[in-house]
Amino acid sequence: MRTIIHSPVFHAFFLLCSLLLLQQQADAHGIRVFAYTSGPDIVVEGRFSSGRAPVNSKVRVFSTKSGKLLLEGKTGKDGVFTFSRPATNPDEGLKIVLVAGEGHQAEWTMTPEDLNEEPMPAAPAAATTPDRATAPDTATTAAAPAAATAQAPATAATPPGQVLDSRALADLVTRSVAREIAPLKKMMMEQMNRGPSMTEILGGIGWLVGIAGLLAALKKK
Amino acid sequence: MHISEGILSLPVLAGGGVIAATGVAVGLRKLDYEHIMTTALLSSAFFVASLVHVPIGPSAAHLILNGLVGLILGWAAVPAIAVALFLQALLFGFGGLTVLGVNTVIMAGPAVVVYLLFGSWIREGGRKQLLGGFLAGSLSVAMSGILVAIALIGTDEAFMKTAQLILLAHIPIMLIEGVVTMFTVSFLSRVQPEILAIQKS
Lengths: 221, 201
Hints:
The complex is a heterodimer. Helices cover about 45% and strands about 20% of the residues of chain A. Chain A is of the alpha+beta class. Chain B is about 75% helix and about 5% strand.
């Protein structure tokens, strides 16, 4: 045992470990996928744990309830695939599977709560402003939500301070919140996708030494 | 070259598990008291090798070192690699627990094969030792790639295409592994020849 500790092999091994300390890069074969809602769309992002994006990788979206394949697509150059939110039952979630080829695959589940977080108060709120939300008005808002900001001049005939009907307002808020938290969601994903930390690496080596000790104790007779 | 969870069918997973368990049992039986520490060292080297990144063009590959582990440990490479893969799955999230058996076969199978093919060359020294080290390092990576493609038969990835893709992507790492294994072996034979004499049988 003592010869091992003084042996060049052991030193070489320590050199390898210290190299790792300097160059803390992750490997290429862990892959993760992450999905979030963004307005009417769902954004799927994949990452290898080296930080590289999986290009042109298949994305399959299943229903968690029926297990049925709902839609299929491919990631772009940035490893992102965006699709419009499929019609789902209130108790139905989405299972998103990213297939990066050569045995690489990852999945992410969106619960019904994840999916239903957005299209909210519109209906009850609209009821409190009965005559303001006239039929043609709501129709344009629903058809072109992007025009929400342009709503102000369009409804110029209404008294000042009452420029937006509640539906357009809800839409506007949803959009700006989505825009604001998009970088946060991205950051969260990057946090999750960090490669193994030094703690885990050293922990693993510790386990190996421990197992060797156990084996040695068992075999010594 | 780890296969992720949720890709392979149950028979493939079970088959891999059985083969891996047999290999581990054989390896443990052949492992004697004096060489436990060497085995643990090489197991640790394998455990961290996949974190050592070699940038190649736009992408990057990592060392595998299964050839080196096999050459030095022989059959004991199977338990050494199995434990390292188990810890990688548990701590790094590479591969997974259900695919552990298959991944062990993919990595440790070629390790044993290169030991059987080149083990005696390594112990002879001279030019044959260098050549054996290089071939063991590079061929074990190639064999692992082919085993991945075989394991993926029956999924929607066609065998020939996958095998080609993996082999092409790993040509640089095959060369690097070959050189690393060659130099490690010749270094060991000069400074600590007894480590190479681990299993003469």
